[in-house]
From TrEMBL:
The keyword Transmembrane helix does not apply. CDD domains: KBL_like. The keyword rRNA-binding does not apply. Belongs to the class-II pyridoxal-phosphate-dependent aminotransferase family. Keywords: Acyltransferase, Pyridoxal phosphate, Transferase. Its cofactor is pyridoxal 5'-phosphate. InterPro entries: 2am3keto_CoA_ligase (IPR011282), Aminotrans_II_pyridoxalP_BS (IPR001917), Aminotransferase_I/II_large (IPR004839), AON_synthase_class-II (IPR050087), PyrdxlP-dep_Trfase (IPR015424), PyrdxlP-dep_Trfase_major (IPR015421), PyrdxlP-dep_Trfase_small (IPR015422). Residues 63-404 form the Aminotransferase class I/classII large domain. This is Aminotransferase class I/classII large domain-containing protein. Pfam families: Aminotran_1_2.
Length: 415
């Protein structure tokens, strides 16, 4: 009797689950079709090799990689890999805990100290990603008596982090300092005012007008926050990011950045700044308090990278040379390249379908690039975002430029 009853209940449950899932599918399907019809469907190509300049896809295609955030070419660096292997044996695969319970090892403390020293700050705190660092900062620091002023084209993680806080929120027009000043003037009654910006805007390769931001911050007694994910380790005279690029080391109040791009490319993010801020984040920042600590191999990799880049500009110098070569040759060929002398080199196409077709034809030529279109970038501003690495050779870059020229002429993007 019980067996029959159980089977009946299982059938009823399956029917209810099927109905609920049918409703979900009914809601989702039109949106998926609209994405596909707009030509903005994002395909995922599967890589069968390590992340390096020459990669192999699972379909057997071999290609030169020009769209990774591997700016310094350290994702496959032998010294970095060796450090990770040694840490795996010594410290284990993971910690199964958050930092304040039993998730802190000596290498975590060592890395935070190296990050703070690299940036010339009093302290640093590690997160699972910079997305988490951005999610944990604003809610912890700001309350309803405060105001945050954010560039309208800031990264999604900054936008989402700001949404979590109770401060008054203002978006100023992209890199528009007159608009920022107006909003600073309108928020004079706030306890704290925080100007938040990307250091480098990743879709355009453009740099925040830091000098003017600092001038306005001083004039209106505001704090400054910079997300430096696309600058840390490789931008500026010594690779110390946006403030280094403007010869303003130590001028930004709060810097968030990542270990998952130039600094080895594994995972992890951080906040660096005043000791009191770091202490507060350790006590109150939810992504820090409720997320497992970074795995030892990842921490050891980043520790090694910090050693590699702190006392030399070897990787940085190669990256600058490669960036200049690509940008100059592409402009000479007739392409429109966005950005401010940054290794992010957006090749502007305009039409979303054309950008996607262009990228597909590039992979046929052995050049791995991706077309970016709405909603990642504004409508009618689709582009192929090329990213240069210190690990690219001169021949690699010339090969990529030649492929761009051939396909650009075929698709009538250039003459």
């Amino acid at each position: 009797m019980n067996s029959i009853l159980n089977k009946s209940l299982q059938l009823i449950n399956k029917k209810w689950i099927s109905r609920r899932m049918s409703l979900l599918t009914e809601c989702i399907t039109p949106e998926l079709k609209a994405i596909e019809a707009a030509g903005t469907w994002k395909k995922e190509r599967i890589i069968a090799s390590p992340q390096r300049t020459r990669i192999t896809l699972t379909n057997g295609v071999e290609a030169l990689n020009f769209c990774a955030n591997n700016y310094l070419g350290l994702s496959d660096n032998k010294e970095v890999i060796s450090a990770a292997k040694l840490a795996l044996d010594k410290y284990g695969a993971g910690l199964s805990s958050v930092r304040f319970i039993c998730g802190t090892q000596e290498i975590h403390v060592e890395l935070e100290k190296k990050i703070a020293e690299f940036h010339g700050r009093e302290g640093a705190i590690l997160y699972a990603s910079c997305f988490d660092a951005n999610a944990g900062l604003f809610e912890t620091l700001l309350n309803s008596e405060d105001t945050v002023l954010s560039d309208e084209l800031n990264h999604a993680s900054i936008i989402d982090g700001i949404r979590l806080c109770k401060a008054k929120k203002h978006r100023y027009k992209h890199r528009d300092m007159e608009d920022l000043e107006n909003k600073l003037r309108d928020s004079m009654s706030s306890r704290l005012r925080l100007i938040a910006t990307d250091g480098v805007f990743s879709m355009d390769g453009t740099v925040a007008p830091l000098l003017k931001i600092l001038e306005l911050a001083k004039k209106y007694n505001a704090l400054t926050f910079v997300d430096d994910c696309h600058a840390t380790g490789f931008f500026g005279n010594t690779g110390r990011g946006t403030e280094d690029y403007f010869n303003q080391l130590g001028s930004i109040d709060i810097i968030n950045s990542t270990l998952g791009k130039a600094l080895g490319g594994a995972a992890g993010g951080y906040t660096t700044g005043k000791e009191e801020l770091i202490n507060l984040l350790r006590q109150r920042s939810r992504p820090y308090l409720f997320s497992n600590s970074l795995p030892p191999p990842v921490v050891a990799s980043a520790n090694k990278v910090m050693d590699l880049i702190t006392n030399t500009t070897e990787f940085l110098d190669r990256l600058k040379s490669n960036t200049d070569l690509f940008r100059n040759n592409m402009k000479a060929a007739g392409f429109t390249i966005s950005g401010d002398n940054h290794p992010i080199c957006p090749v502007m196409i305009g039409n979303a379908r054309l950008a996607s077709e262009f990228a597909d034809k590039m992979i046929e030529q052995g050049i791995y690039v991706i077309g970016f279109s709405y909603p990642v970038v504004p409508k009618d501003k689709a582009r192929i975002r090329v990213q240069i690495s210190a690990a690219h050779s001169r021949n690699d870059i010339e090969q990529a430029v030649n492929a761009f020229v051939r396909i650009g002429r075929e698709l009538e993007v250039i003459n």
